[in-house]
From TrEMBL:
Residues 4-176 form the Helicase C-terminal domain. The lineage of its organism: Eukaryota, Metazoa, Spiralia, Gnathifera, Rotifera. This is Helicase C-terminal domain-containing protein. It comes from Adineta ricciae. Gene3D superfamilies: P-loop containing nucleotide triphosphate hydrolases. InterPro entries: Helicase_C-like (IPR001650), P-loop_NTPase (IPR027417), RLR_Helicase (IPR051363). One of its GO terms (cellular component) is cytoplasm. PANTHER family: ANTIVIRAL INNATE IMMUNE RESPONSE RECEPTOR RIG-I (PTHR14074:SF16), HELICASE WITH DEATH DOMAIN-RELATED (PTHR14074).
Length: 202
């Protein structure tokens, strides 16, 4: 055992005390998804509580068969045949799991967009989102940065609500013109530099 797995088991025991609850665990790689699924299946404290399944991506020659199995697994999770699903982060963006009572990200944090997508899986009112990681680790700090990013985004959206449509279009157009002017100037500099280099080479 290690502290992160112990914490995972503790959280599962709490949430699975309610037979209607379902838990989504997001991991970084297929290997972790399969190993955690095996670990949970054989854990004595979860024996009468857990019905786990595993959902991982595949782009190999048997991708069609895997996709069919994925659909069956997802339907089983949504209907309650399984109450815990361990999925790789690569496929979580397309998951629609409104039945979740808990979304757990196990010991990894992707970029800001990936973190927001994981949190969106917890879109029902009473669903919780948790990260299991070591305090002050790289993942811990990435999660803090992602949450600040999310808060900043909310503030920007609130600011936009107070701007009229005409003013918004005008501001966007100014930014576009500025970017195009900057790109044009850089292209001219590049063309001049290439021309000078060609003459020097000759």
């Amino acid at each position: 055992m290690n502290p992160k797995l112990e914490k995972l088991v503790d959280l599962l025991k709490i949430h699975l005390a309610n037979p209607n609850h379902r838990i989504l665990i997001l991991v970084e790689r297929t290997f972790y998804a399969k190993k955690i699924c095996e670990f949970l299946q054989s854990h004595p404290d979860l024996k009468n509580l857990i019905k786990p399944c595993c959902l991982v991506g595949n782009t190999g020659s048997n991708a069609r068969e895997v996709n069919k199995n994925q659909t069956t697994t997802l339907e089983g999770f949504q209907t309650g045949i399984y109450n815990v699903m361990i999925a790789t982060d690569a496929i979580q963006a397309g998951l629609n799991t409104p039945q979740c009572s808990l979304v757990l990200r196990y010991d990894f944090v992707p970029d800001n967009i990936g973190t927001l997508q994981g949190r969106l899986r917890a879109h029902t009112g009473d669903c919780k989102y948790c990260l299991i990681t070591t305090k002050d680790s790289a993942n811990y700090n990435k999660e803090k940065d992602s949450r600040k990013y999310e808060q900043d985004l909310k503030e920007v959206l609130e600011t936009w609500k107070g701007i009229s449509q005409d003013e918004f279009k005008e501001r966007v157009q100014k930014v576009q013109e500025s970017l195009v002017a900057e790109w044009t100037a850089n292209l001219i500099k590049l063309a001049i530099a290439q021309s000078v280099n060609a003459k020097t080479f000759e």
